[in-house]
Write a structure and sequence with these properties.
Blueprint lengths: L8 H15 L1 E6 L7 E6 L2 E2 L5 E6 L3 H8 L2 E8 L4 E12 L2 H7 L17 E16 L3 H12 L8 E6 L2
Length: 168
């Protein structure tokens, strides 16, 4: 039995925040019309109240160059330990102004930028989601595993998962 849920906008943004914040690292894909996809791991610094996802990036990176050519991006979040998954399709914008850098800077990014937030190569990427979909377990991982095991040996149960489109 499949559990599918469509969320209202406010609930959707909350679910997006919850999953993206908890999982944190995603595969950030650009050049969606070319195969193989251009993908790299990125940490999502924030999901704002409108559902935008914010990232810190090097202004001279291939990713930034590719976004300037085509702003369509796909983000794949996966946290196997808790069986949480999120796919986000949207449009990316790049910011290099001081106000965006100040607002979205995190100290951990200093590892990649020698001069910290004053490094001339710091840029901020905003991904404005157009479509998002998630898969999650509703009963917790242990219960989901027991249900999977029961189904495997022929005892009918629902799979303990919930999935839904996040409407933004």
């Amino acid at each position: 039995m499949e559990n599918q849920k469509d969320n209202h906008r406010e609930e959707s943004i909350q679910k997006l925040k919850e999953l993206a914040s908890d999982i944190d690292i995603c595969m950030f894909c650009t050049q969606l019309d070319q195969l193989p996809l251009s993908a790299r791991p990125m940490s999502c610094n924030q999901v704002d109240d409108q559902g935008n996802l914010w990232f810190i990036s090097n202004a001279r990176s291939n990713k930034n160059f590719e976004i300037k050519q085509d702003d369509k991006v796909q983000l794949f979040f996966s946290k196997i330990s808790s069986s949480q998954y999120l796919s986000v399709y949207g449009h990316a914008s790049i910011y290099t102004d001081r106000s965006h850098i100040e607002e979205h800077w995190v100290e951990m990014a200093k590892v990649w930028f020698e001069d910290g937030k004053d490094d001339p190569d710091v840029s901020i990427i905003r991904v404005q989601p157009e479509y998002a979909y998630y898969w999650d377990v509703k009963d917790g991982k242990a219960i989901a595993f027991l249900k999977w095991a029961a189904n495997y040996i022929g005892i009918e149960t629902d799979d303990g998962g919930v999935q839904g489109r996040i409407k933004l």
